[in-house]
Amino acid sequence: MTAVLTPRTDPAPAQPSPVSTGALTLVELRKMVNTRSGAVLVALVFAIVLTTTVVRLFAGDAADRTLTGFLTYSVSPVSIVLPIIGVLSVTSEWSQRTALITFSLVPRRSRVVTAKLAAVLTVAVGTVVLSILLAAIGNGLAPAFVDADGSWSLSGTALLNITLYHVGSLFIGFAFGMITMNSVLGILVHFGVPSAWSVLREYESGVDDAGKWLDTNTTMSPLGETVALTGQEWGKVLVSVALWGVLPSVLGYLRLRRTEVK
To answer: TM spans, by residue (predicted)?
Structure first.
């Protein structure tokens, strides 16, 4: 009698599941503070918010010492640093020569870009939370040291405006990082474009008219206020962010897809 051997079929090895976008975002957040420059910038944001809170505590009118007053006082100073964080969130891959490792571990470049953008937005929201926390501390301490209104009211409009201001600042920095892929160049372009607008607007009336729609220093300034924006003001914000945020991001992503990672 001849035995019939049945060939053994082992189950196929399980494929490892891809890393989630949330996990990639946490990695990108950690990379933001893993370098000396990133850690310094994050610490600088905290220092600016703390300093403006102390200044508002002892300077200005009593009517300005409210939760909203403390919160809005830090918006403009912080917006100077946030775009630099946005630039470095992208360009650090190339300046630190870690791009090859990153894109080898996550070959789909769109996922890396998405995680970086999510990390940038998280930093923006975190900045708002930090500002509210320190503003609340300042508002609580103010009556014990100086004359203060002490109001705890914070309108949804003010909170929305400040959040969008920080999101827009970081996103535009992110966009310049995407299009340049170079830390120094990205930072220079970000600060050079508004300066160029200011010079040109002094000599050309047509440029001045265009600047009301395209200069982000002008279009986004109403977001630093506590009142609702008009329809025209929202239009100016959208047009300027589309030009200096969305367009460079798209062009930078197309460039990234075609760039050989070494």
So the answer is: 39-58, 70-91, 112-138, 158-176, 183-200, 237-256
Nearest to 29 by CA among 159, 145, 127, 154: 127
Backbone φ/ψ region at 106: left (φ over 0), alpha (ψ -120 to 50), beta: beta
Averaged over successive runs of 10 residues, the pLDDT of the chain (262 residues) comes to: 56 63 89 86 94 89 89 90 93 75 80 93 94 93 86 91 94 94 90 78 72 84 88 94 94 88 70
Residue 69's contacts (CB-CB under 8 Å, 6 or more residues apart) are 56, 60, 63, 149
CA dist list (Å): 97 to 9, 28, 31, 103: 44, 15, 13, 11
pTM of the model: 0.87
CB 84 within 8 A of CB 169: no
Say how many C-beta atoms besides its own lie within 10 A of residue 215's C-beta. Answer: 23
Residues found in the chain: 262
**Distance in angstroms (rounded) separating the CA atoms of residues 78 and 47:** 10
pLDDT at position 50 is 94
CA separation for the pair 65, 144 (Å, rounded): 12
